[in-house]
Amino acid sequence: MVVSGSEQGSSTMGVRRRFRLGCFCRKEDFFPEESFQSWKNYVKALGETRMRLKDRMLTRSKEEEEVNEMRQRSQHEMKKSLNWWDLIWFGFGAVFGAGIFVLTGLEARRDAGPAIIISFLVSGFSAMLCVFCYTEFAVDIPVAGGSFAYIRVELGDFLAFIAAGNILFEYIVGGASVARTWTSYFATLCNHNPDDFRIYVPALPENYNHLDPLAVFIAIAIGITATISTKGSSRFNFMATISYTVIDISAPYSMAFQAVGMNWVKYLVAIGAVVAMSTNLLASIIGQSRYFTHIGRTHMAPPWLATINEKTGTPMNATIVMTSANCIVGFFTDLGVLSNLLFISTLLIFSLVAISLLVRRYYVQGETSDSDRNKFIGFLVLIIGSSVSTSIYWAVGDSWIGYTITVPIWLLATLGLKVIVKEARKPKLGGVPLVPWLPSTTIAMNMFLLGSLDGASFMRFAIWSGVLLVYYLFVGLHASFDSAKEVSRGKEESELRNVEASRPN
């Protein structure tokens, strides 16, 4: 299918190109930027890597650019078919997922035991703090890019790209986890062991050798639903979230009821879980495709992904790619591996958003004095450093002495930020209360939770981060640099034409 060519936007790229869907794509759909038009251009771009990296690290996106100009890069607008009621039920669908139905039982058996309730309280408190941080950004910068856009505005392109990679990683791993969970509960519903529906391949490494074709099937089915219609997806989500809330569950997974001889309750819970997994996967795919669309608009990912289908008003290309990724990861990877990777990505993004909020409140380029800027940077480094140190000490320490150093440093750094540094910006509407205490506590809590994860998960995460860095240095950096410069030239030309037009004849 071919979508007719048009200009990328009056204030954006002045290059005409066609977007093709499916497998019929040209190089220009993925790499339209100047640096990739020839090998000579690419070699020249690589030679300017240092300069370009500095430019992207220091440059900040403007709020109006994220809210208005970025949308023009998709050629067509997404259809605004959801109202507040739909969004509430999408929220329910996103919440009732693998974390409630499977990971609770997994963690209780493997690590926490009866203390699983305390784990819920700690993680719930951390999540609540993160919600406050997100809310101020969501009100001021209401865009599909979410935390990626927030970080890009406050911390710059480079950290935004790192966040983007982890956002996508989070969504892919989360979607794959839910898809494999769907298989587990469907097997329970059919009175089978979950592995009865998986294919065991002993030649593959452990944790990757139970292939799950049902996870692939449900991911594709949900992906098709999300691609065709957002409103239709919302209706399904609403109805399904409503064969869920009437089910009484008093254990984290259905096999717990079987263990005490209550088989009939096991089947009720399994039905509720299968439906809940479906709604969770639907909300996940819709969210991740819109994130990917916004990242494509910045050219940090191929701009082909930013295309909005004219007929459905949905980001079809991004949805197809993300669904495919969910299928591949869910087909191979064990839930235990997926869960820890998901936690690392999520906690890192939450921390970056909290840091972005502190930057938003205490630093405004061109307005904050050099003295206040330097003091802010110093206190922020102490907050992050003491939080990371506390987390490391929690993971490896065997006494309380280290906390008498790290915790007071965090406390005094946060107090110093509150008392000594002048707040540079007030929120447009109702902002986050207790700044800087609340975002600083968010950072500390997230770092603390990271300290409870195993070393193997951090190694896998380091490998993924390395892949992201290589892609950015060789592709994403140059594509986004070219795109930003093209936009800047377009604005200058537009302003020049306006000046010329205003002159008397």
Strand content: under 5%
Number of strands: 4
Q: Which consecutive residue ranges, at least 5 long each, have pLDDT under 50?
A: 1-23, 236-242, 244-253
Specify the CATH architecture of the domain at 78-138 and 161-353: Up-down Bundle
How many helices in DSSP terms? 19
Q: Name the helix and strand elements from N-terminus to C-terminus, one letter apiece.
A: EEHHHHHHHHHEEHHHHHHHHHH
Class computed from helices, strands and strand pairing:
mainly alpha
Biggest pleated sheet: 2 strands, antiparallel
Description:
This protein is an all-alpha fold and 505 residues long. It has a domain at 78-138 and 161-353: Amino acid/polyamine transporter I, CATH 1.20.1740. It has 19 helices and four strands. The strands form two sheets. Strands 1-2 form a two-stranded antiparallel sheet. Helix 5 (84-95) crosses helix 11 (230-241), helix 9 (157-189) crosses helix 19 (455-502) and helix 16 runs parallel beside helix 18. The longest helix is centred in the last third of the chain and has 48 residues, at 455-502. It is globular.
List the helices and strands and how they pair.
Elements: E1 2-7, E2 16-20, H1 27-30, H2 39-47, H3 49-58, H4 63-72, H5 84-95, H6 98-112, H7 116-140, H8 147-155, H9 157-189, E3 199-200, E4 210-211, H10 213-228, H11 230-241, H12 255-259, H13 263-297, H14 316-332, H15 335-362, H16 370-396, H17 403-420, H18 437-450, H19 455-502
Antiparallel strand pairs: 1-2, 3-4
